[in-house]
Each structure stands twice: as C-alpha cells, then as structure tokens.
Amino acid sequence: MRAFIAIDFSKEVKKQIAQVQKQVAIRSSKGNFTPEENFHLTLRFIGEVDEYGMESLAEAVEETGERFRGFDLNINTLGFFPRGDKSIVWVGVEKSKSLEILFANLEKNLMRQGFGKERQGLTPHITIGREVALKTSYDKLKAEIDMQSINVNVNSITLMESVRRGSKLIYKPVFVQKLK
User: Fold this and answer.
1) Which residues pair with 126 in a beta bridge?
2) Which domains does the chain have, with CATH numbers?
3) Cα dist. 151→18, 80, 146, 169, 178 in Å?
4) What does the alpha-carbon distance between residue 29 and residue 27 come to, in Å, rounded to a whole number?
C-alpha cells in the first residue's frame, strides 16, 4: 500500500483552491491538473508499506493528534517548481508555527514507530497541477491570478492510501485523528 499523512480539507476549501486552479488552467496550454477531491497538504509522504506498517502509521498519527490542538492556516501563495518547459504548480501556506510543531511531533512519533526521519523537512504546499505548460511567464501569471487568502481550520490529520485505478489516482482516508 502506498501511504502518506496529510491535512485534508473541507469541500468548501477544496472549491476555493479549484477556483485558483481554473485561473491557472486557462492560462496554460496543457497540464495534468489535480482533481478537486484530491487536494490536501502532505505532512509526510511514506511510500510503500504493508498492513503492519499501516497500523504503525495509524498509531503515530493517533499519538500526534491526541496531544495537539486545532489551528488555522492561510493558503495565500501561488508557486512553481520548474521542470524544463513545464512546471509543477502549487498553492502554499503562510508560515505557521503550529504547523511546524505539528510536523515535528509527527516526525518524533513516526521515528518511535520505526520510520526514518524526513530528510527534506516540511515544504507546505498543495499541488494543483503537474507538467503544466504555461502560455505566459511565471511572474506575469502570478500578477494575473487573483490569489485571495483561503482560511483553513485544521482540526484533524489523516493517514491516506494512494490507489491507482487506470490513469486516475484516488486518495482514500485510512485513519483520521481529530485534534484536541
């Protein structure tokens, strides 16, 4: 099973992110755009694990959530990871001490369960498109996009399984831990 731990969003937040995505899509000649139902903020990508590994991951998620209070995040940045003439396009979150502490606690609990430390740390973003070929420059696109702040109430963390059905990725919640 291919697993990751994420902050999932309400349908309303996903709709708001989709509005930004639509603005990018109409200014692109092509791209593989993330389905609205798959929008999430990855806290930690795990990769392939067996059933026992999923149980250990669920324990780490539970331990993290039991001791952590809910908090707010603001999605307010449009960004790009350039890959030649195409890019990964994402929306990012305002710097958040609460998010950093949540990530650090999750890392500690994952290590206790036998998972190695994340080498790259946390780069909080929500991927809205892959292999996107823009019709304009990054700077011009950022100036044209109406990126208003999207408030997110983080009240749970979710262990997800990534399942491929044909060419479609489906993210299935395996375990959801509410925050205090």
Assistant:
1) 91
2) 2-178 (3.90.1140.10)
3) 14, 21, 15, 26, 18
4) 7
Q: Give catalytic residue positions.
A: 40, 125
Adjacent-strand bridge partners of 161: 3, 172
Strand partners, 153: 72
CB contact at 8 A, 154 and 139: no
Residue 5's CB: how many other CB atoms inside 10 A?
25
Question: Which residues pair with residue 77 across a beta bridge?
Answer: 92
Quote the CA–CA distance of 143 and 166 in Å, as a whole number: 37
∠ CA 107-111-113, rounded to 5°: 120
Distance of alpha carbon 123 from alpha carbon 113, whole angstroms:
23
**In this predicted structure, which of 45-49, 53-57, 61-65, 118-122 has the lowest mean pLDDT?**
118-122
- Give 14's DSSP letter: H
Distance of alpha carbon 18 from the chain centroid: 14
* Tens digits of residue pLDDT in 114-134: 998 887 888 899 999 999 999
First to last CA, the chain: 29
